[in-house]
Amino acid sequence: MKTIIIDSSVYVPKQVVSNDVYEKKFNLEKNWIEKRTGIQLRHLAEETQSTSDLAVEAIKPILSRNSEPIEFILCATSTPDSLLPSTANKICNKLDLNHDVFCFDIMAACSGFLYALSVANAFIQSGLYQSGIVVGSDKMSAIINQEDPYTCTLFGDAAGAFLLKKSSHSDKGIISTVLGSDSTGVDKLFIKAGGSEIPMTSQRLLNNEHYVTMLGKEVFINAVNKMTSMIDKVTEKSGLSSKEIHYIIPHQANQRISDAVYDKLGRPEHVKMFSIIKNHGNIVNASIPVTYHCYQKEMSSNKNMIMVSFGAGFNFGALHIRT
């Protein structure tokens, strides 16, 4: 018995912001952003749209196409609607699933979606539940300083969702998972104020302490090393050789990071490493489900796919899925 992805869906906001906008705003050299990141475009939500709104739009098509009841909704997000209640509760309320499912949030920065997939897989593998939805949704434009060219040019807004179910197929679905943390990274990618440690005040708001702070070089090095290590560990756990990997979906943080991971793996010609960074930027917890949705028709059956992520904390992980 395996957990399989029955259906997927995504929501991407209509508003598109090109690099030209930022190059003019910050007086940047032409193609400076793309050379550093591989990003050309990003989609930004409207001010009136919340993280739960994005998630709802991603989930609706799945519900319309699948009539069987679901038992849970897990929401991976770094930009919750509010501190209380959970964004998952907001999602269920907006979908009128108030009494039919249980739900909760998972926060593990950019690795949250893979963590949520792992939890959902454990639920289904244990036999406690038969089916559920995992959604990754983030409105990063709400927590990024739009006057900082080193961060606002990187991120976009989006949501992506998977419908998971138990399958009798023994050779398809989620084969193995590996998760990890290195908490020496807590001060490398963070938001200083707004939590119980440093509550928000008017002065801290004026100091922009409610926005993301990132030490780019340290994050880059750790992302490359940890994602490469996770790929090695999950393939070893599944009993695969490196030659048996067919597809890799990395977290879409930065094209240079993905390229460096590919280099560290030896640039294997038999592996397709998928990327949507060019037209979406870093969409955090929506990154992996949106990439999967965009490329699933290009994936053949009975192939080995690795999903791998890295995020603040540091948290990281990988899943091996047999297509």
From TrEMBL:
Occurrences of domain Beta-ketoacyl-[acyl-carrier-protein] synthase III C-terminal (ranges): 236-322
One annotated GO biological process: secondary metabolite biosynthetic process
Any Pfam family hit: ACP_syn_III_C
GO terms for MF: 3-oxoacyl-[acyl-carrier-protein] synthase activity
Alphabetical keyword list: Acyltransferase, Transferase
Statement: the UniProt record of this protein carries the keyword Oxidoreductase: no
Ranges where the Beta-ketoacyl-[acyl-carrier-protein] synthase III N-terminal domain occurs: 104-182
InterPro entries recorded: ACP_syn_III_C, ACP_syn_III_N, Thiolase-like
Statement: the UniProt record of this protein carries the keyword Secreted: no
Superkingdom, natural source: Bacteria
Family matches, as CDD domains: KAS_III
Name under which the protein is recorded: 3-oxoacyl-[acyl-carrier-protein] synthase 3 protein 2
Species annotation: Legionella antarctica
Protein encoded by which gene: fabH2
